[in-house]
Design brief:
Elements lengths: L1 H31 L1 H19 L5 H10 L2 H28 L5
Helix pairs in contact: 1-2, 1-4, 2-4
Length: 102
């Protein structure tokens, strides 16, 4: 029982840290390099257009248009990047203290 609780707590903490880190990266990018953020927003708009202008029936395409926005795509990119950073830091920390991941 304790092992299940430890794994679920670890996953929850990782997701929460990725959420915070992705927002920190987004704000940091907006403050330091607004030109790059504009470029990323334009790219996510292209991806949004490609996803929402498919030959799906209207009942499915409407859901895509509601839930898939350029802001969500951009945040998803930063969240994936944050998860990669957390995995690298976490595995480096585990290797440094000599504990094997279970």
């Amino acid at each position: 029982m304790g092992r299940i609780l430890a794994r679920s707590t670890n996953a929850t903490i990782t997701i929460f840290l990725a959420f915070l880190l992705s927002y920190a990266m987004l704000v940091g990018l907006a403050l330091t390099s607004p030109q790059t953020l504009t470029w990323l927003l334009d790219g996510s708009e292209i991806i949004e257009d490609a996803l929402t202008h498919t030959n799906l029936p209207n009942e499915y395409n409407n859901w895509l248009r509601i839930f898939v926005g350029e802001e969500q795509i951009l945040f998803l990119f930063f969240a994936i990047l944050a998860r990669i950073v957390i995995a690298i830091v976490g595995s480096s920390f585990s290797a440094a203290i000599g504990r094997k991941p279970s």
